[in-house]
Write a structure and sequence with these properties.
The protein is built from 14 helices and 6 strands. By secondary structure, the protein is α+β, with helices and mostly antiparallel strands. A 6-stranded mixed beta sheet has the order 2-1-6-5-4-3, with helices on one face. A hairpin with a 2-residue loop joins strand 4 and strand 5.
Length: 305
């Protein structure tokens, strides 16, 4: 008896692309996972005979689900306690080597994307990150192609005006990260100061769930004292701070045993830390767990097809 292999499910084939799309649109791991799950339900309820292009259908579904989620999330974030930062995501080293892809998922880029309207963000992500044509995006969003072109131009200009090009050399980043880690661990104020740009800013996202600064900290001296003050707290006894690739760039992962309790990402300019973003909200740490398949999920379309 001759048997044939069961036909592969297009949803599983494109799952990583769907997560990558939702994560870049929403900036949160948990919401992106929810969107992928909702897309799965929609896919399995669909009449497959009517779906000629499964990948396009699935991306369209995720895009519109994400748009709905992002629109409702805006109101929630207006009431957020303290600074709102994207959820960090552990990514594989080879993802970080793909510079363009890594840049699109960097914390700095996700922060810039937060300043776009939901529709602008959707168009920018689909066009600039995943390379869909204006015609394809118009079909996804059910909008005229000329309107999508205008939105794309506006979003690209907006991002370009707010996007700063920071140091991207991986060897330099590793060297600076190790020096910064040693300076902080040694409690040496002067050594930490030497690592910080004069106009450095530090943000902490605790979401009102744990103790964290409710306002940004500005200036090298204040930021250095803030960081050392946090590390000197009794709650930090026994905590491990280790380098890890987070959102496509080397950062710091904070662990209590094997459990992540925070992360620190930063931008480098002239070999100095300029923007420091500390995520300690326990509701936003799922993407930092090493047993989570986040490295795969962070890949773009080249890693899905």
């Amino acid at each position: 008896m001759i048997t044939s292999e069961p036909e592969a499910d297009p949803f599983n084939e494109h799952r990583r692309l769907l997560f990558a799309t939702a994560y870049r649109m929403l900036g949160t791991v948990s919401d992106a996972e929810d969107i992928v799950q909702d897309a799965w339900l929609t896919w399995h309820k669909a009449d497959r005979s009517e779906v000629r292009h499964p990948k396009a259908y699935l991306v369209r579904t995720v895009t519109n689900l994400s748009l709905n989620r992002l629109t409702s999330a805006r109101a929630t974030r207006e009431e957020y306690v303290g600074p709102w930062l994207p959820e960090p995501l552990l990514t594989e080293p080879d993802v970080a080597q793909e510079r363009e892809l890594a840049e699109s998922v960097s914390t700095a880029m996700l922060v810039v994307l937060e300043t776009l309207t939901p529709v602008e963000r959707a168009v920018f992500v689909l066009r600039e990150v995943f390379g869909y044509s204006h015609a394809e995006i118009a079909g996804f969003l059910e909008r005229p192609e000329p309107a999508v072109r205008q939105i794309s131009h506006r979003a690209r200009k907006h991002v370009a005006e707010r996007r700063h090009r920071y140091d991207s050399d991986s060897a330099q980043r590793e060297e600076v990260t190790q020096r910064f880690l040693r300076a902080c661990a040694g409690g040496d104020l002067n050594a930490v100061l030497e690592m910080l740009a004069p106009d450095v800013t530090a943000w902490s996202d605790g979401g009102g769930k744990v103790t964290a600064g409710r306002r940004p900290v500005y200036g090298a001296d204040r930021v250095a004292r803030f960081l050392l003050g946090v590390l000197a707290k009794p709650a930090m006894a026994g905590v491990t701070v280790t380098p890890a690739v987070i959102n496509g760039e080397l950062g710091l992962l904070v662990l209590a045993g094997e459990e992540p309790i925070g992360s620190c990402t930063y931008d480098l300019e002239g070999g100095l830390l300029r923007n420091i973003r500390i995520q300690v909200n326990p509701d936003k740490l799922a993407g930092l767990r090493r047993d989570a398949p986040s490295g795969d999920r962070a890949r773009g379309p080249e890693g899905t097809d």
